[in-house]
Amino acid sequence: MRLLLPTFPKRMSSAALILENELGQVIIEKATYKPYWTFPGGLVDPGESPKQTAVREVLEELGLIIQPDTVEFVAIVSRTSDAAETYQFLFRAMVSSGVLDHVVREESEIEAWSVTTKDKVIAADRVYAKAVMHWAEGRSGYIEQTFGKGE
Fold it and tell me: I need a labelling partner for 139 at 20 to 30 A (CA). Which of 2, 93, 100, 128 fits?
């Protein structure tokens, strides 16, 4: 029997963590290399699970330690563009408002960070990543997203 795995297309994966407090606010960040605000996150490294990635990226980008057992799955976004096909795993962890006092921004990669609410995202008070829009719209589970193809 011939193994077919090498012939299957490969997709990169990324993970992001929605850090939401009791007031319904979330932490967002503006990376130096992106034109929009998004949740902390990044590419899944070899040998790493998407959940591990989300927790690691929050530590690297914002200096926050999040316990993995407090992180819950929210959605997987199947993203298709002219450049690539990827999966983005979205997770959420509830945090206290006091966590904002402990943010230490990774200055070489993260230009700024802020908090926002669903109302502000829907009002488009700044340019947000589609993952942030999905959160504001209350979307969860499986989401398909196409961009760069005439959008």
Answer: 100
What's the chain's Rg over C-alpha atoms?
A: 16
Q: How far is Cα 70 from Cα 143, in angstroms, rounded to an integer? A: 23
What ranges make up the beta strands (E) of the chain? 12-20, 26-31, 37-38, 41-43, 71-80, 85-94, 110-116, 141-146
Q: What are 8-28's pLDDT values in tens digits?
A: 667 899 999 999 999 999 999
| CA neighbor of 71 nearest in space, from 143, 132, 110, 20 | 20
Read off the pLDDT of residues 34-83 as tens digits, 9 standing for 90 and up: 999 999 999 999 999 999 999 999 999 999 999 999 999 999 999 998 88
Instruction: Round to whole Å and give the CA distance between 23 and 25.
Output: 5
